[in-house]
Amino acid sequence: MRRRLAVLVAGAAIFGTGVALADGGKAVTTPSGCGYSPRHTSVRRGHSYAPRVALTFDDGPSAAAPALLKALEDKRAPATFFVLGGHVRGHEALLRRMLADGDAIGNHSFSHANLATRSPRALAQELDRTQRAIARATGFTPCLMRPPYGIDAPAVLAALGRRHLTSVLWSVNSADYTRPGAAAIKRNVLAGAGPGTIVLAHDEDGARGRALLRALPSIIDTLRQRGYELVTVTDLLGLAQTPAAPVRPTAGPSGQDGSRR
Ligand SMILES: [Zn+2]
Predict the structure, then answer these.
(1) pLDDT at residue 84 tops 60
(2) What are the structural domains, with CATH classification, of the chain?
(3) What are phi and psi of 173, to 5 degrees?
(4) CA 133 / ligand 1 centre spacing (Å)
(5) Cis peptide before 249, with omega less than 30 degrees from 0?
(6) 171: Cβ contacts below 8 Å, ≥ 6 apart
(7) Residues near 198 by Cβ (< 8 Å), separated by ≥ 6?
């Protein structure tokens, strides 16, 4: 609950605080619509008219997600998490905490499959199971989708379009998954960052996640020193129709804090 005013709007009220979720927690009130435009089904970056950058983290929630979230919270920096439907269970409270922080959550498929090679039925399941898992956990249905491996083949885009999901790729790759070390991750991001940049990074545990965590505070500080505002992809693309009205998330009955994988 760090940066937005609580604005009550009809769309947000649908997911009011009284909604009971699958794990016993309470829904986080969020905008229900993203203003999908059929003309912008696949994006790699936002508009360049303003010095804004969106950090994105794929493949989580991982065991390292609480630390990643804490690092972003410490800097009051919003981010966008493209989560795997198969990783939602046990991390429900963590997803609600992301939304309460003002972060955005997107769909990254259920099993990290190359969707271009899936049958239409399997592709639909990858998308829909993840949408349902996130909705059950948070009361929020994502409007953004990042196809695994960045493969947004025509069949994938068509399936996304039918669901009013915008495909979000990236314009700057941190290459954190190549284990380059914290200094190189920082260099990769800062060398490529410009107005409208979408940065690819990952929510991963282990050595790769630790290197990213070491680099992240300095990346955020340096971007801000250069005049950039950090925003979610939703905000960067101007897709949010209404401000979020975040509500402090309530912990699930078993203290789900994202520590289990
Ligand atoms: Zn991925």
Answers:
(1) yes
(2) 37-236 (3.20.20.370)
(3) -105, 120
(4) 17
(5) no
(6) 44, 45, 192, 196, 197, 198, 199
(7) 43, 44, 45, 46, 53, 54, 56, 168, 169, 170, 171, 172, 233, 236
**What distance in angstroms lies between residue 67's CA and the mean position of ligand 1's atoms?**
19
Q: Are 58 and 174 in contact (CB under 8 A)?
A: no
CA nearest 37: which of 118, 154, 143?
143
For strands 166-168 and 172-173, give the pairing.
unpaired
Ligand 1 centre to CA of 177 (Å) is 10
Summarize pLDDT for 164-207 with one digit per residue, the tens: 899 999 999 999 999 899 999 999 999 999 999 999 999 999 88
Q: How many CB atoms lie within 10 A of CB 167?
A: 21
Tokens of residue 62, six digits:
């991982």
> Which residues are catalytic, by number?
58, 202
CA of 82 to the centre of ligand 1 (A): 8
Residue for token digits 């025509």? 154
Which tokens hold the place of 161? Answer: 């379009």
- What contacts 6, CB < 8 A, 6 or more positions away? 245, 246, 247
**Strand 42-43 with 197-202, pairing:** unpaired
Cα 19 to ligand 1 centre (Å): 30
Q: What is the pLDDT of residues 206-239, one digit of tens each?
A: 888 999 999 999 999 999 999 999 999 999 988 7
Beta pairing class for 197-202 and 172-173? parallel
Rounded to an integer, what distance in angstroms lies between the CA atom of residue 247 and that of residue 102? 10
Reading the block at residue 154, the tokens are 């025509």
Average pLDDT, rounded, for the chain: 84
Residue 13: CB atoms within 10 A of its CB come to 12
Distance 109 CA to ligand 1 centre (A): 9
Residue 117: DSSP 8-state: G
Does pTM surpass 0.85? no
